Amino acid sequence: MAPAEVGVPAGETGAQGGSVELVWSPSPRRVERRAVTIDGAVTARRVLEALQSDPMVAALGVSQWQPGCWGRRTGWDDELPPDARVELYRALTVDPKEARRQRFQAQGPVGRFRRRTLER
Fold first, then answer.
1. Which residues contact 113 (CB under 8 A, 6 or more apart)?
2. Residue 105 placed within a domain
3. Strands of 85-90's sheet in order across
4. Which residues contact 21 (CB under 8 A, 6 or more apart)?
5. Could you tell me if residue 12 is inside a domain?
6. What's the Rg (C-alpha) of the chain?
7. What is the CATH number of the domain that holds 81?
């Protein structure tokens, strides 16, 4: 499947459904996966609806997640390839630059930034 076809508005690709995988990370370093077969057009919304019998999927609040397919963001109603891997992305809780700065400060003076005393 060509990357250009990921996330096409519904009704434009004519996908006939297929086996789809839903992947999300409810917390850091933890990944959940569920597989489902969808008949007809595959969209992120239809995948979630098909998996509502699973308590973990039913507990997902749609408003806090951004859907994607194979690492590319899509809309909830964009038509996806039949063999799609639907991914749900969490919002960032920490600014990546700020987290790096805090890690650097916590590790203390090491490496080339360490102050060295000159021996005489």
1. none
2. no
3. 30-39, 17-27, 85-90, 65-69, 72-73
4. 33, 34, 35, 84, 85, 86
5. yes
6. 21
7. 3.10.20.90
Range of the domain at 19: 3-92
Residue 72 lies inside a defined structural domain of this protein = yes
CA pair distance 32, 16, nearest whole angstrom:
26
Can you tell me the distance from the alpha carbon of 27 to that of 78, in angstroms, rounded to the nearest whole number? 26
Number of domains in the chain: 1
Q: How far apart are CA 8 and CA 12, in angstroms?
A: 7
**Beta-carbon-side half-sphere exposure of residue 30 (alpha carbons within 13 Å):** 3
What would the two tokens of residue 10 be?
A: 């519904």
Per-residue pLDDT for the chain (120 aa), expressed as one digit of tens each?
Answer: 334 444 444 444 444 667 899 999 888 888 999 999 988 889 999 998 888 888 888 787 777 889 999 999 999 999 998 888 999 998 877 888 998 888 888 887 666 666 666 666
Asked if residues 61 and 99 have their Cβ atoms less than 8 Å apart, the reply is no
pTM of the model: 0.64
